[in-house]
């Protein structure tokens, strides 16, 4: 069975500081991992995805994520947080190759 957890729930970060949002998963097969963001009063927006290949993934708005298979993690990071980053962040996992960024199952959110 697939399982994705975001253990931090809600975090506070001062503007200009490094931020990391944790995502852990449990699944033994090939996986595709995603991060989405939902700004207040808006729908989900795609941030980045991991497909088999490089373990460091660069996304939009300065976000990036590290895929660590040995730790079953895909943590989202940004070197310098900005007030406009305040939003809910969703980590998602898919066990079949996606045709596009959409369609991945969404898991519990994390608010920044």
Automatic annotation (TrEMBL):
UniProt GO cellular component terms: T cell receptor complex
Domain Ig-like: 1-112
A Pfam family assignment: V-set
GO biological process: adaptive immune response
Keywords carried by this UniProt record: Adaptive immunity, Immunity, Immunoglobulin domain, Receptor, Signal, T cell receptor
UniProt key word Signal: yes
InterPro entries assigned to the protein according to its UniProt record, in alphabetical order: Ig-like_dom, Ig-like_dom_sf, Ig-like_fold, Ig_V-set, TCR_variable_region
Domain of life assignment: Eukaryota
Protein name, UniProt field: Ig-like domain-containing protein
Organism: Bos taurus (Bovine)
């Amino acid at each position: 069975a697939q399982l994705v957890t975001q253990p931090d729930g809600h975090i506070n970060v001062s503007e200009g500081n490094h931020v990391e949002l944790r995502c852990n998963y449990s699944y033994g097969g090939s996986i595709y991992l995603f991060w989405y963001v939902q700004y207040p009063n808006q729908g989900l927006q795609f941030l980045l995805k991991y497909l088999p290949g490089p373990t460091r993934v660069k996304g939009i708005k300065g976000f990036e994520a590290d895929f660590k298979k040995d730790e079953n993690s895909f943590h989202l990071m940004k070197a310098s947080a900005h007030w406009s980053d305040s939003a809910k962040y969703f980590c998602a996992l898919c066990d079949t190759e996606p045709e596009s960024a959409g369609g991945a199952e969404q898991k519990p959110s994390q608010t920044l």
